[in-house]
Amino acid sequence: MNLSIKWLNDFVNTDGISIKEYCDRMTDTGSKVEGYELLGEDVQNVIVARVEKMARHENSDHLWVCQVNIGTETVQIVTGAQNVHEGDIVPAAIPVAHLPGDITIKAGKLRGVESYGMLCSYHELGLNEHDMPGYEGDGILILGEEFAQYVGKDVREALLLRDTSVEFEITSNRPDCLSVIGLARETAVSFNRPWTCPAPVVKGANDGDAVENYIKVAVNDADLCARYAAKVVKNVKIAPSPLWLRMRLRASGVRPINNIVDITNYVMLEYGQPMHAFDYACLDGAQINVRRANEGEVFVSLDSKEHTLDSSMLVIADEKKAVALAGVMGGENSEIKDTTATVVFESANFEGASVRVTGKKNGMRTESSARFEKGLDPENVIPALMRACELVELLGAGEVVDGLIDVYPGKKTPVTLPLDPKVINEFLGVDISEEFMIETLQKLECKVENGIITVPSFRNDLTCMNDIAEEIIRIYGYNDIKSSKIKAENTAGGRTPKQQFKVDLSDALCGMGLDEIQTFSFISPKYYDKIRLPEDENVRRSIVISNPLGEDTSIMRVTALPSMMEALALNNNMGNENVYLYEMGNIYIPAAEEDDLPCESNVLTLGMYGDVDFYTMKGVIEGSLALGRIKGVTYEAVTDNATFHPGRCARLVAADGEMLGIFGQLHPLTAQNYGFNTPVYAAELDFDAIFEHIDGVIEYKPLPKFPASTRDFSFVCDEELEVGKLSALIARAGGKLVENVELFDIYRGTQLGEGKKSVSFRVTLRASDRTLTVEEADKVSSKILSSLEHQLGLTLRK
Amino acid sequence: MKDTLKKIKEEALSKIADDNCDLEALRIQYLGKKGELTAVLRGMGKLTPEERPVIGQLANEIREEIENAMKEKQTELKAKALENQLKAEKLDVTMPVKTLKRGHLHPLTKMQRELEDIFIGMGYTIAEGPEVEYDYYNFQALNIPENHPARDTQDTFYITEKILLRSQTSPVQARVMEQQKPPIRIVSPGRVYRSDAMDATHSPLFHQFEGLVVDKGITMGNLKSTLEEFAKKTFGEDTRVRFRPHHFPFTEPSAEVDVSCFACGGKGCRLCKGEGWIEILGAGMVHPNVLRNCGIDPEEYSGFAFGMGVERILMLKYHVNDIRLLYENDVRFLHQF
Lengths: 798, 337
Known about the structure:
Oligomer: heterodimer
CATH superfamily of the largest domain in chain B: Bira Bifunctional Protein, Domain 2
Shape of chain A: elongated
Radius of gyration of chain A: 42 Å
Shape of chain B: rod-shaped
Structural class of chain B: alpha+beta
Number of strands of chain A: 39
Helix content of chain B: 40-55%
Largest sheet of chain A: 7 strands, mixed
CATH architecture of the largest domain in chain A: 3-Layer(bba) Sandwich
Largest interface: A-B, 90 and 86 residues
Strand content of chain A: 25-35%
Number of domains of chain A: 6
Strand order of the largest sheet of chain A: 27-31-32-36-35-34-33
CATH topology of the largest domain in chain B: BirA Bifunctional Protein, domain 2
Number of helices of chain B: 12
């Protein structure tokens, strides 16, 4: 809402309040000021002047040399315009002058002839054809004899260019403040000044004619229309509005059109009540019905757009057709034209939610609908309508037919609330006197009698004690509330074990040299192709956003791998070397039923390239598991996951068989999709499952009292035989005396033969209650050897 | 005999003095079973009873002297050897090195943790909830019915008519109030989604950090004190807090909250656009309708709530001028935090 300070002063005198002071105080009392503009500041030293003499320029066939009276003296100005004549009153920029667009006018010579300034068009003064209807736009602005009194004066005075426009951000609960009157009321209470709002006076035609001779109104759907009022104006003369009215609209950011349309806009801005005017001649019959639209009814709005309506929408219709979409926009069929002779002014109260839905469905949002949506005051309907008629008479735009149509099915009883100063003071933590409370509420037009507040009809946002408390404290001063520490029962703060594990794991990963990333939870469905996810409906089924910003952010990811890959690719493209990343993120697995929320799981994604290999990543994973003291996790080779290298991929399986995640080197074709031709490693781990497998119990085991014995074994076996299988077998065969089995060497060489490797283990043996004898240790050794021989056919390497 | 002993002594001591001597060989040569001094002592039987004690004493003195000399020499040689070793092991301390690389938390995580820790210290727990949420919790339970104009200020991504991507973390508050009896003190950090096109200051996904306190006798003065505490811990001890009236459907009274500019201390600078104040959060007293919707009696309990954008705080605090940097994950950016 842009407020003209001049307009505001019709209702409340703001003399002596600086604009800065005004804006700050209004913000402090709840009407937030976004900024202000000093209108006319960009026009400096432009004087209303009379052209006294004109002569052709000696060196030009199109330039004129004018002698111009600027009040105190006559100066010579050269102009190229052809519409100026001797005796004309024109704006003259006198050096040094400033014009909008940072233009400076200085004295100079034009083709050798002195020119002391410039004659101006209205464009050069920052005006347009709507601000200055009827004036020539191509040449110099010829002001006409009515401006004779201004010769020698500042053009801003003549054209009423000076004003201050204050931009308010009005919150959705205060539609009453989307008006000059509403803001005048707030200004008055904020600065403790009186204000007045005189009731409009309409003389009327007084000729025996009556509104009933023109129209009858029926409100068929009272749930959507609490009140519908109308007046008729006859003998209308469509013309431009007077300058003062145009300039007020301009200061409010509204484009002037013609007197009747401008009046509706003026009243809307002043009273906050949207108005509609339509051409009586376009009505079929005298009956106006306020009704729900028929399903499929076609309506063409003022802006020539066609809409197909449905029964949730309210229309203003004659006997045959809709002439307006209630509260949103009028119809093209009944638009005010230059030939319009009789006008119907509508002032009504439509239900907010319905206007909102109607506007939304038709893709329309207007100054009118934006106000109705928030819920307006039905009591404001008549004053606004009378104000429109008063302006018609003031402007001489037509004759107001006597009589008033007023159908008011939705009259409400005023809201009453108790005023309990003690409760309010305790709630706010302040000590405000009852007198101040009552005085403030009264200034806000609440009635307060015997501890009961009667809320004015324009304040439907006041419904409970909290609302009253806010009214009082915003005027008293939010910043006068004294801080006080909470006096209440203690609560134990902290993280849950899972939240804490996430913190600890993050720290551990950082300690291992990985950087944390954060990526969007929504992705493009194409990302699944990029990681070569199978085109299986069950795998790819994702939550789809019905109104996405674009395809890139249109579905909720079911895997966080693509996001990790995008981050790796970006870093690679930037030339960053040795990049190791992790993300603690969510994935969103759709529920079986559409109405159920998806399962949001926490995943830990890892991604690495550079000076690392498969085992580096495995090391990071083992380090992470060790943090949770998770034991017994096995690694199973995965050969059929298209994202990963078939020979360099593994899944983690917990001791109880639950899968904890998958990791490996990316398939070269996947890597290629992200611009990599060197190895890239990635992991997607199920954080929730890992957390479930944490061994939270720490129990001290006595340190060994007796020495250990070690035995080394080397075997030659097939390359295919996994080391993990061998060591598990050794441990099992060795029995309970085996404390540790450690691989300490792998050797491949021509003498071993193609496809063979030599693996060496060191087995540590220990008993907790004695030193093992050589015989005991040898016995374990031979158990291991015989087991390997029987089960795998392996013998010690000679 | 005396002379022999003296000669042995002098010879032995002079040999021991040599840095290259073999101490063990000398010990055998002089003090061993077949050593020279031992041989002299063995010949003592030939001496007179008068001479015997004198020579005996002298011999023992000499033996002791040689032994001591040997011990000293040994210590000296060890020290020399160590000295040589240390000399040989000298390093050039100015050599450039490969620093052991630690990873970095994402600045959002760092910022969020910092905020969490402040409130944990004040007795808050951390509440989490779904990001794909019911319209009911995101709006209706929070006093924003269908077709309420307040919905316009949060352009929401919808999945179905009833399910959406939460546009605020407040639904977590509603869920907590439904499940937990007061006293409630929670913060709810997390991802929220709004249909804003990506530019330097907007992102369709960002993080909020909200707080909620519900108990008997909670006042707006308590809200102010809590936010002052938070502001001081986050932006510095001298930070002041300013409230401006505002409207949120779920709180009443509601406020927008500014902190004194931590760059200029309130004098006005580029960061605060000359205002001296920076808007950082919204807050207010929980609306009685919200309490009621969640099964808490507003006659018995009151509460306050506040919320802020983690990105905004982070960007202000670390002078990050483009929100997109936070989601690009360029390590050259991440390594700065």
